[in-house]
Design a protein that fits this description.
- By secondary structure, the protein is an alpha/beta fold.
- It has three helices and ten strands.
- The strands form two sheets. It has a five-stranded mixed sheet, with helices on one face.
- The longest helix has 10 residues.
């Protein structure tokens, strides 16, 4: 199972479309917030891909009806995805980890900080794919890719 993870596109439709059209074979596309307008535009332009898209509301997705987080099973794993602003990810991942564990998830995805982050510790995979538009960590715009198979979980963050 391949999952494309993108976040913080902030109006950059070009980068969003570039990533998603290069990864049409993915089973899921997760958008972690702050890009709902361009994501809606993409879904309208590419209706065949829209059923693969799951997203959450970011702090800049004003008047959004999207959820603050979602959980989804992925094989023997379970994913917790949130933008992160309501979990104070700018200062610590503790609230985010607690919410994920309360929902029995072992893969955590978040955005908001515009900084790439990836780790595996204590049986939990955590990824922030960075920003697809405005990175704040000195790197290029980026997105994440997760491959889940019978052999395990493989995460990668790639430049756009």
């Amino acid at each position: 199972m391949r999952i494309i993870v993108i976040s913080d596109t902030h109006g950059n439709y070009q980068n969003l479309e570039k990533v998603l059209m290069r990864n049409t074979d993915a089973q899921w596309i997760f958008h972690l917030g702050d890009g709902e307008l361009e994501l809606d535009r993409f879904a309208i332009a590419h209706p065949i891909l829209s059923p693969k898209i799951i997203h959450v509301a970011g702090n800049c997705d004003y008047d959004s009806l999207s959820p603050d987080f979602f959980t989804i099973p992925a094989g023997v794993h379970k994913i917790f995805a949130a933008h992160g602003h309501k979990f104070s990810v700018g200062s610590s991942l503790d609230k985010l980890k607690k919410a994920a564990l309360d929902n029995e998830c072992d893969i955590i995805l978040y955005g908001h900080t515009h900084a790439r982050f990836m780790t595996y510790a204590d049986g939990i995979w955590i990824m922030n794919p960075g920003s697809a538009a405005i990175p704040r960590d000195g790197s290029n715009p980026s997105f994440g890719c997760i491959d889940i198979s019978e052999y395990g979980v493989l995460m990668n963050i790639a430049d756009i």
